[in-house]
Amino acid sequence: MAAFADFWATYSTLVYSVGIHALLALSLWLTLSCGLLSLANAAFMGIGAYTAALLTLNLHWPFPAALLGGAVAPAVVALIIGAPTLRLSGVYLAMATLAFGEVTRILILNLQITGGPEGLNGIPLLTTGWHIVVILAVAGYGLARIRRSRLGRAFEAIREDEVAARLMGINVESHKLAAFTLGAVLAGVAGALNAHFTFFISPREYGFENAVDILTMTILGGTTSLIGPVLGATILTLLPELMRFLHAYRLAVNGLILVVVVLFLPTGLWDARRFRQLLKNRRARKGGQP
Amino acid sequence: MLEQQLINALTLGSVYALFALGFTLVFGVLEVINLSHGAVFMVGAYAAITAVTRFHAPLGVAILAALVVSGLLGLTIDALILRRLRARKAPHLIPMIATLGVTTMVTSAAQGLFGVEVQRFPEAMLPTGEFVFGEVHLRTLELGIVAVAFLLMALLFGVMRYTRQGRALRAIAESPKAAALLGINVEGLFMLTSFTAAALGGVAGVLIGLNFNAVTPMMGAPILHKGIAVVILGGMGDIRGALFGGLFLGCAEVLSKAYLSSQMGDAVAFGLLFLILLVRPAGLFGRVLERKA
Amino acid sequence: MSLLSIRGIGKHFGGLQVLEDVNIEVPGGAIFALIGPNGAGKTTVFNLVTGLIKPSSGSIAFEGRDLAGVPPHQITRLGIARTFQNIRIFPDMTLLENVMVGRHHLLNYGGLALLFATPAFREAERRSRERALELLSWVKLDHKADATADNLSYGEQRKLEFARALATEPKLLLLDEPVAGMNPSEKAVLMEEIRNIRDRGYGVFLIEHDMRFVMNLCDRVAVLNFGRIIAEGPPDEIRTHPDVIEAYLGRGDEAEVS
Predict the structure, then answer these.
(1) CB distance from B274 to chain A under 8 Å?
(2) Which residues in chain C have their CB less than 8 angstroms from residue A169's CB?
(3) Cross-chain Cβ contact C93/A160 below 8 Å
(4) Residue A258 and residue C88: Cα distance in Å, rounded?
(5) Domain residue extents for chain A
């Protein structure tokens, strides 16, 4: 028990980070599952973080209500910007969401209420490990349910062939908006949780680099199942810690991993289909023996 | 003073245009959003500063060194990564992520090699001349920057317009398949494009480094964002658009910094960008693509 | 009354006139074919009917209802389903999932039912799966229900596209060159499938340039040439129609009138 307490004292922050990054990776997974290449999720995380932090700091709302606020605010923004933005496809959508992310970051940097470049300080430390575990579990369960429903099938159909999906009676626009908005909700909750255990937030944490980090986790892990993004988030959160001995070069390893995975494991580290295929081959080989 | 600001705007804008030209060239020909273009830009600046401080090369040679080093880096990225992804017909997202990985690697390597501190060209090396027209000061340095940027851009336009390779490149941009059927060496031209684009980016890095006399490993990120902005303004893949977009963004930035707050200028620029994307996805100067069913 | 009425439709892309004053009446419960040389504008007719593009002039009505301004997904829900000339299945989804996508608008449980997997949700999903399996068995693909669609052969992919279109429970099925790229025995099998579909009460409207296939299969044929309807009637009449022979023989390469 004492050993665990020691471990927790040293590494709890790291474990928290893994959970929050996993939530972010899942938020992007949802957006990508509908074929939307969005770089807006870091901005949604920021909107959620600032909303929740301001609610607890200034208005002294209870934590659950602040979390809800951190979910609703990015959802509203996503609904507003989604309708016009989601008409764009592929790289144009990526560029538009990137521009939106930059506008958001620069606004946070310049507004009075957000504390400008200094950010917000003294946010109450309300997030516990349980909050993260429960919310991650709920999110995972919800996404798993969506996958096995008409909604998840529609998302996947839109990703694979938008025109064919449309002619299957799917309202492509409203489904894209749903995927975009639900992704924003998850990112916002992740931001709200994060703000209430780091004590301090600043606009620097929600820029282009962060959007790309989220993308990296999701793609590294693989998007064919829900395990992939969680795995990717875990690896990319722990890796810099394990690579401390490389000092200045440790980020280079991140970059290298990204390149290697993209080149040699196009479906990411965790590909359910590849595993099934391997299993089948092995079974077939065993079955073949007398 | 408006005239002075316009000179600054022209200087900055010409470098933005030079940077964006490479970025848009790669998009137009290879259909890749090359997120390593900012890192290549930074490498160009370091190549020049190393040539100057280590090997005491004159400035002209340093610029040439930057051109070659960054061009070769671009070629390497193409040969090791983009070529494989092309062969696999990977979707748009994939090369974007791969080049992002390259950015992280190269930036981190530069931090390891050169440190995170700002490096500067020795003051003695920089041209110090100045023309004075009334209240307007025109530094030889700025004049040189604009001259180099426009010279390279003119060279590229000339090549694109009047040479066989240039025509072939434009054919590829229209349709790689048709170009291949016409007997054009598509792979070879893809690699040439990667080299050229990176070389232009590297020179842009030196010019920005000279303009502010500051070179850091992190200098690639902001210019990449601006390059993206320029390319969206001018139309993705449109090289003339990149020129106009670059000058426009240079003006917008300098003027909004002079007359608004320094940060809100960026917000206005990106907000504008966001609007343009919604209204005219093919850019202000580009033809609007009719998206087919 | 005919199921689908195309009245005076014209369509131009820029300066290029693709269709001019096209009138087609597609009856229900029968197999109707639109034939014509490549480039005659046949697929454009389908794109207009399914709402993917808007006509430059004229009107389209389905069961007496004007389709102007109705978005494609609503047109599907009204009862028109289609397949594509260059197959457009969802390659990374299983066969079962492909077909279940077609049942999207027929599953109308809400978000909460979905999240809590209520009995109503499970019952709706189960019925949908059963129907999807039944449709897969119609096209004899039920034994591969859990395989991913990209593993299928070309002919199997066409049949999957059929089953997926039928899953939307259409009244009219649009088939865009259903036998393109198939060998004679595959064609024969497919012809049988199409007859079966008609006999189950669906209207079938197909586009084809393989004349032999059409003549043996269809109840009625219309011929499109250079954007205009040049003949319309039962197959026997069309076979001997001088303008049709001219249109096909004039092309040389497609002289398949038997």
Answers:
(1) yes
(2) 73, 76-77, 102, 104-105, 168
(3) yes
(4) 32
(5) 14-288
- C90 to A156: CB separation less than 8 angstroms, yes or no: yes
pLDDT tens for residues A53-78? Answer: 999 999 999 999 999 999 999 999 99
Contact flag C91-A160 (C-beta cutoff 8 Å): yes
For residue C47, which residues of chain B lie inside 8 Å, CB to CB?
293
pLDDT, average across residues B163-167: 86
All domains of chain C in start order, with CATH: 4-89+169-251 (3.40.50.300), 93-151 (no CATH)
Percent of chain C with pLDDT over 70: 96
Residue numbers in B near A91 (CB within 8 A): 33, 92, 96, 236
Q: Which of B89, B79, B96 is nearest to B36 (CA)?
A: B96
Please return the burial class of A242, using the count of CB atoms within 10 Å of its CB with bins 0-12, 13-18 and 19+. exposed
Give partners of C (≥3 CB pairs < 8 A).
A, B
Contact C37, C225 (CB under 8 A): yes
Helix (H) or strand (E) holding B142: helix B140-162
Cβ neighbours of residue A268 closer than 8 Å, sequence gap 6 or more = A219, A220, A221, A222, A223, A224, A228, A232, A261
Backbone angles phi, psi at C7, to 5 degrees: -125, 115
- Quote the tokens at residue C93: 């989804």
Residues from chain C that touch A155, judged by Cβ atoms under 8 A, are: none
Contact between B147 and B10 under an 8 Å Cβ cutoff? The reply is: no
CATH for A14-288? 1.10.3470
The nearest alpha carbon in chain B to A96 belongs to B274
Q: Whole-model pTM?
A: 0.87
Cβ <8 Å between C50 and A165? no
Which residues of C touch chain B, with CB atoms under 8 Å apart?
Answer: 47, 52-53
**Helix boundaries (H) for chain A:** 2-33, 41-57, 63-85, 90-110, 129-147, 150-160, 162-166, 172-198, 208-221, 227-242, 250-264, 272-288
